[in-house]
Amino acid sequence: MNLKSLLAGAAALVFSSAFVGVETAHAQLGTGGASLGGGSQQESGAGVSSKKLSPNPTAPLGVVGPAQSRLPLVSEEQLPPGQMQGLTEGLGEAGSSSLADRDSQAYTNVSVPPHPYSTARVAVTGPRGPGTGVVHTPVTSTPYRQSGKLYMRFGSGWFVCTASLIGPSILVTAAHCVHDYGQGAAGWADDVVYYPSHLKPALTPAGIDLNAGGPWGGYRAIEMVIPTPYFNGTDTCQTGAIGVVCNNDIAVLALQLKDNKQVGAVVGGWYDYGWNGYSSISSSAFGNQTVSAITQLGYPLAIDGGIQMLRNDSFGRYVTTSATSNGQQLRNTELGSLMTGGSSGGPWLVNFGTRPTITGSAQFGTAAASNVVVGVTSWGYTSTAIHTQGASFFGQNYEFPNANYGGRGAGNIGALVNHICTIYPGRCAPL
Fold first, then answer.
1. How many whole angstroms separate alpha carbon 430 and alpha carbon 414?
2. Where are the alpha helices (DSSP H) in 233-305?
3. pLDDT of 96 over the 70 cut
4. pLDDT digits (tens, 9 = 90+) for 216-260
5. What's the maximum distance between 2 C-alpha atoms anywhere in the chain?
6. Count of CB atoms situated within 10 Å of the CB of 368
7. CA pair distance 2, 25, nearest whole angstrom
8. Which domains, ranges and CATH numbers included, belong to the chain?
9. How confident is the model at residue 83 (pLDDT cuts 50, 70, 90)?
10. CA nearest 246: which of 344, 112, 393, 375?
């Protein structure tokens, strides 16, 4: 399936709704990087595929905007809402990259079952003080500025997604943002640029502007890594939604330095990442399904023209199904959201926000580390009336069964991060 042809002119995400047991873990907002020695790839099952990018690509003549969405969509006929089962089995040992141990205003009455959610622009309705612009607050503040907009060029066309930092110069996003499912070496993007705290257009008639987009401009990717099953089109995917609702729609990217500085040092940190349902619980309050409170960030084209960052809060439900392309178990997460295409690859975070200081009898719960990415926006429905989106589950699955890949975590996210950090140790968070 060629996602460029699938997504041209489209902008919605799709989800399924059934989780399976896996390990859970997370990592916290980092503040510095360290040069790490390379480790051996402890992979079994599937591997990873990568492509190096030119540090100074020359775009072909005729490159035009505006950029388009790459969000894969499914119809209600392909994947009826609520078809996947929400499960309560144990997830396995949860973890995060550091191994340290929310509100609704609306819901759709179309999706079955409906998910409550709250979606709003990351901005304030009045100035904070003299000289403070509304659109700059709080999108340019931590922990929002660890996320940003991703521009990708495929041939002569530009597309947009969302991405976030999980290391000094390491991004996590969706695989479909940088590669056409199953297209092998021909499926890669030709140029990828990341803009933290994006708040104004970066595309011009002359091409991409590295000094535009936001207060820190753009940072080019130098290497992209995705799961090999996604690369060659053999991933475990929902029957009827092959290449759309899958186990491993995840990518990690290494970024160039700018002025000899890593973007994580410039913006003041990066997020943690988690696996196997970090900060999820099986709760009787939700019918004994496995759920977590998730904050989603993204740049959907159908809202504010894709220029402004949006925040969405909902509960994430762990879902799974064996009605798949290969008979293996599909693991996803779904939530309620107003977002559409352009939000692809945006982080799904647990315990999001500025961490408070306990000064009295209050106490943090378990799996309470702050700002932990446990998924990225992967798919949605063609109907914008179904306010539901989905994400490939971060953690162990059929393709990536191991509990630990080089000390970088379990399953798909552990394998990808371990691979990129073996190549670029100085761009990664310390173990």
1. 14
2. 263-267
3. no
4. 999 999 999 999 999 999 999 999 899 999 999 999 999 999 999
5. 64
6. 15
7. 33
8. 3-125+136-355+366-427 (2.40.10.10)
9. low
10. 393
Q: Give 360's contacts (C-beta < 8 A, 6+ positions apart).
A: none
Which residue, chain included where needed, has tokens 């896996």?
A: 22
Cα distances (angstroms) measured from residue 9 to each of 71, 72, 382, 388, 428 = 10, 11, 11, 20, 36
Whether the bond between 138 and the residue before it is cis, its omega within 30 degrees of 0, is yes
pLDDT bracket for residue 55 (50, 70, 90) = confident
Beta-carbon count within 10 A of 233 CB: 18
Can you tell me the distance from the alpha carbon of 173 to that of 175, in angstroms, rounded to the nearest whole number?
7
CA distance 25 to 100: 8
221 burial type by CB count under 10 A (0-12 exposed, 13-18 middle, 19+ buried):
buried
Q: For residue 26, give every residue at least 6 positions away whose Cβ sits within 8 Å of its Cβ, in sequence order, or none.
A: 94, 95, 96, 97, 98, 99, 100, 272, 273, 274, 275, 278, 279, 350, 367, 369, 372, 374
pTM above 0.90, yes or no: no
What Cα–Cα distance (Å) separates residue 212 from each residue in 194, 198, 200?
Answer: 11, 9, 7
Cα distances from 173 to residues 37, 252, 346, in angstroms, run 25, 6, 6
What lies within 8 Å, CB to CB, of 337 at 6+ separation is 13, 115, 117, 119, 296, 312, 314, 343, 387, 388, 389
Q: What pLDDT is recorded for position 99?
A: 42
**Cβ-based neighbour number of residue 406 at 10 Å:** 21
**Least confident range of 175-189, 280-294, 346-360:** 280-294
Q: Give the residue with greater pLDDT, 219 vs 55.
A: 219
170 vs 94, higher pLDDT: 170
pLDDT in tens, 372-382: 999 999 998 88
The whole-number pLDDT of residue 67 equals: 67
C-alpha atoms less than 13 angstroms from C-alpha of 310 in its C-beta half-sphere:
26
Cβ atoms 71, 162 nearer than 8 A: no
Neighbours of 422 (CB within 10 A): 18
The mean predicted confidence, pLDDT, of the chain is 81
Q: Which two tokens stand for residue 419?
A: 């691979």
Q: Is the Cβ–Cβ distance between 331 and 276 less than 8 Å? A: no
